[in-house]
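Onboarding guide, step 5: your first structure request.
Type a short instruction followed by the sequence, for example:

Predict the 3D structure of this protein.
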Amino acid sequence: MKIHKFEGTAKPVLTVGGKVQGNKPIKFDLNDLIQLPSETISIHHSVTGQRNQYTGILLDDFLNHLGIAPDSSYLIIRASNNYKSVVKINDINRFEYLLSYKKNGKFYNQLPSEEDRGPLAIIINFDKHPGLDFDIYKHQLVWFVENITIE
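The system replies with structure tokens like these:
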């Protein structure tokens, strides 16, 4: 699969840099990401009791398609609201992390509440891995994702 470098007139929503092929940052607009193979996962929210569906790209697949350096060990994920999280690549390989662009069938910018806006979010499938400690991994749930640096 070919990963497209941002060349269009649409605004880029994600920049990926660090240990990627060519060692140059790659920019993606939302349409670039939508063209990649997608997954939809359903997750029960422990606080609200609601079940939500998230659609996007499995982060493990995305990293493989980018051609990251074999000695890469973690990602630094930055959000537009200055939030930053560090995620081990081993965890991404073991658990189902999703680079999500839709919630319940709608793009984040189509949702009414500010906390649901993206355009991208990192979602972890806690339902698939019930032994995963939410208190440890909840800090890796990142909304407003705009930058990923591979280290």
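Each response can be followed by summary notes, for example: The two ends are 23 Å apart (CA to CA).
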